[in-house]
Amino acid sequence: MSRGSNAGFDRHITIFSPDGRLYQVEYAFKAISQSGLTSVGVRGADSVVVVTQKKVPDKLLDSSTVTNMFHLTPRIGCVMTGHTADSRSQVHRARVEAGEWKYKFGYDITADVLCRRLADISQVYTQNAEMRPLGCCMILVAIDPQHGPVLYKCDPAGYYCGFRATAVGAKQTEANSYLEKKLKKKPELSHDRAVQLAISCLSSVLSLDFKATELEVGVVTKDKPKFRTLSEAEIEAHLIAIAERE
Questions:
Q1: Which of 23, 118, 148, 229 has the lowest tally of Cβ within 10 angstroms?
Q2: What H or E segment, with its residue span, contains residue 176?
Q3: Burial readout 46-76 (b: 16 or more C-beta within 10 A, e: otherwise)
């Protein structure tokens, strides 16, 4: 049992180590970074954008079936980063919760309530021994009837928060500091600028020049509040605009 300072404390999810940490929950965060993907969300003046890498692990796979973008309700979308199977499980649970809310109260659930509900469920996973935390992180986007564009992030520890821009995954630290620099002066981002900021943030921190097939972009705008993903032609147009600007 003598395995250095954290001997035995990472065996059980419900046990604090002497320095007050829950190792299993920290390992869940590590699992998200180990997935090798990075996702970025940016909130503009009248739109919200999420961008993530699209990696098809096998040449034989049908690339149209590989995605990290999901509809939770017609107007709330999300991007998942981390273990794909855990992500699908959380997306399914979110859809069930949203459906039950609609059935019970007769109107669509709002993004902040849905995010809080999922965070509450994730928190229960950190205190019950028969469950494990999900190794995935969800970024939700929607146009709220009261607050306009909203961007929320929910993590395996059960913490959730609203953001102006955020990143998650392998290079999240670098991406977050890039976004902090760019958004320091609180610029009014139009829809196109928000998409291009998110894409250039990804290509800057990963030092890659993306092709349209290597990205997924999900958007909601005030004019079109339904969540949709951009086609390859639309992504290509944004990539050309970025290249011309630089």
A1: 148
A2: helix 172-182
A3: bbbbbbbbbeeeeeeeeeeeeebbbbbbebb
- Each residue's pLDDT tens digit, 82-97: 999 999 999 999 999 9
Site of tokens 């002497």: 18
Task: Give 117-156 pLDDT, tens digit per residue.
Answer: 999 999 999 998 888 999 999 999 999 999 999 999 999 9
Are residues 227 and 220 in contact, defined by beta-carbon separation less than 8 angstroms?
A: yes
Q: Residue 64 and residue 192: Cα distance in Å, rounded? A: 25
User: Which residue reads 């993004």 in tokens?
Assistant: 111
Helix axes 232-245, 191-206, angle to 10 degrees: 80
The mean pLDDT value of the chain amounts to: 94
| Global pTM value | 0.93
In angstroms, the CA 77 to CA 142 distance is: 7
Residues 83, 88, 94, CA angle at the centre, nearest 5°? 125
